[in-house]
Amino acid sequence: MTFPFFYSDTPGPDNHIEHLDENAAKHIYQVLRMKKGDKINITNGRGMLATATIGEQRKKECIATLTDIVQVPAHPHAAEVAISLVKNAARFEWFLEKATEIGISSVVPLVCERTERVHFRKDRMHNIMVSAMLQSRQAWLPELSDPVPFAQWVSSPSLLVRCIAHCLQDQKKHFREMTSANKDIAIAIGPEGDFTDNEISRALDNKCTPVTLGETRLRTETAGLVAAALMRIQ
Hints:
The chain is an alpha/beta fold. It has helices at 22-31, 89-102, 122-135, 150-155, 175-181, 197-205, 220-232, and strands spanning 5-7, 17-20, 39-43, 48-57, 62-71, 79-84, 106-111, 143-144, 148-149, 161-165, 173-174, 185-189, 209-212.
């Protein structure tokens, strides 16, 4: 039998009493109509997954006792999408939601030369990713970094094989070839209007492999999702 998933970033050991917040309590009592003695799952987004038993009902919180704690293994291969922020925040949030459902390891918001200035609300985006993790019944939450300049990302040390998806008509491999041949991989997705020539040259100088995602021109968030799917859906 499967139980609904809930999130707590600080769950404790067996028999620990967990206090879920008011939003979780409303969902448990008012939406799911659960009651004392019913079971739920709680994860910390870092692989811990516990079965918990609901205790006494309270107005603004749900008290549950953790039992049967297991550590769910992470995916054996790292998958990182470094993607330009976009002016329409809802489109970027849509990408985060779907990429989380697919199960990528990390997202790096990029500030490129053609990235339009946007307000980055990390707390809101984190909550969107948590909801997507719970909906897709996973125990690992992708890491979301603060925005970084593209030049910093491409020149920083990394153990991942790095690729760049740009729109110039140069010789490029299909990204599917790279995901098939490499275990741990990252891809950079540019803004509307693509990376600049200077950024592409910098990426090639730093050993990034130029790749294509297909024959059509994709929006930034669509390209990010296609890349995520190719990394995880084999």
